[in-house]
Fold these 2 entries.
Entry 1:
Amino acid sequence: MHSRKGEDRLLRLNTYIAELFHSGFFNYIIGFKSQDFVPHTSTTLLTKFTQKHFIECFSVLRSLPSLLKEEEELGSHTSVIVLSQTFGLSYFWCHDTICPYGDKIPLQCLDPTCNVIQKLRFKNVKTWVYKRSCKCGWSIVKDATIPNAVLPKAVNGQIKGWGNELLYGTRARVEEVQQAPKETYDTI
Ligand SMILES: [Zn+2]
């Protein structure tokens, strides 16, 4: 359940985004979700994206997901958000031992008498649920479910790569924009 304060913040944010689109200056807004975002980590992605979108005229939804596949380093740092007038997506990176189901976790044992770094073992319990454990005996099971999200396809049983979460709008609309013919790119 959202808190009242959280709802107010969300409402203000939605109003702000609606006003931005209403201004007519933007079809899309691309953002980065990490609270301690380091801008230079996005340089490669934005350079390639600028070429794909503005020079080669691929749509945002045709170019960005394929470019993200080359950006694991960025994914380990931040999720990437795409907002449009009709839908919003958050692309999150998954790695079975570093970032299970997109969950950015401390890679340190949380037992105060241990605190070992980079030695934790991960086990997939079921989809969206994983277990972290340490040789000292400490362990935790976490349900990392993200509502309205699609995970990357599992390869050899491991979930690696970029999934995406629908922030608003419908999957049908996302699909429609993804499949739109090239001559309509400047109108979608
Ligand atoms: Zn430990």
Entry 2:
Amino acid sequence: MSETYTRASELLYHGHSAKGQDYNYPASFPLFTNTSFTMNSLAQVREAYRSKFTYVRTNNPNREALADMVSYFENGEKSLICSSGMAAITTTLMTVLKPGDHIICNSFIYGETFDVMTKLMRKFGVESDLVSFDDMDQVRAAVKPNTKLIYSEVCANPTMNIADIPTLAEIAHKNGAYLMIDNTFTTAVSIRPLDLGADIVISSMTKFMNGHSNAISGSITASAQIIDAIHPIRMLCGTPGDPYAAWTIATNMQTVFLRVKKQMANAAQLAAALEKNPHVSKVNHPSLESFPQHELALKLFAGNDAMTGMMSFIVPEDMEKIDQFMERLHFARYATTLGGIHTTLNHPVTSSHSHMPDADRRKMGITPGMFRLSVGIEEPEDLIKDFYQALEVFDK
Ligand SMILES: Cc1ncc(COP(=O)(O)O)c(C=O)c1O
């Protein structure tokens, strides 16, 4: 990370090498709020358009510094920073697909990505099929001659089903398609999809990558060829990220390894403890032996403590007691986001999955007793004690 950060810092000095001036550099990365950079001659204008900074929607030092950090993080060739995770997804799809193309998408997917696949893309003549990626034969059977893209999250919201990235890459590449992976719930601290064969990795940086619930942004990492094709589309769509968000996230990204390692370890510990509580009928976390894809998880991730800071669990469907349970929690607060340093919880049936018929939700394992948890960096013993005392409301 430090090597990239130095390289990113050098970007600021328009060619002045950090080695040429060994003191008086800002100790932290400055924020460039300017919308434009000045030039003194047409020769300089031509040079600036080729290789320097011009206008904020085209390029900006804070975005480029962050993009450099993300390329290092994901072990990819090149990255782009967008205004949100959704901007990263739609801008990429607008670039790599055309009318008549076909996408195969995991049916266990973030609600708004589901809408992009089933509404937005179809409006522009792109076909999509949503199938369960728990079964690779369903993915193979969905392939058509015009399949150009296979899409999945590493870990699905809120049931945590995981994607077999190496097998998906094999299926995609055999058929001349790209594999695009959303790494939001896991991050490159846990898994690097590009190393496992994916062609494009995107993340909502709004979540774990930033970790402080105070900025919105998205990243795309891929080969230089793919990224260079997305760059002009991002300019036309107006989806490059704002410099202040890029500056905030670049600052917070410096602690991403410390934070996310602790969040993943806490989640594994909390999941194991909740599974033993008599009021919890089910816990979904890939570290648990009861998780249907536990063996696949052990193949994809470095260990039980290195999978994801996300999990879900199911309590009795007594809405009055569920409210009392939430009120009794001291650490976990309800929030419509995830990945921050504080533990937050969310109720899929009244939020992300509220538009779905109950029977369909139940088929996916989502019941009114389900909570999704994003585990923070608190001491795990405190979290376990707190959940246990709050769960006592179901005693009577
Ligand atoms: C898995 C996943 N992907 C993408 C997004 C979209 O990110 P953003 O809100 O930054 O647009 C979200 C948002 O919650 C998400 O959970």
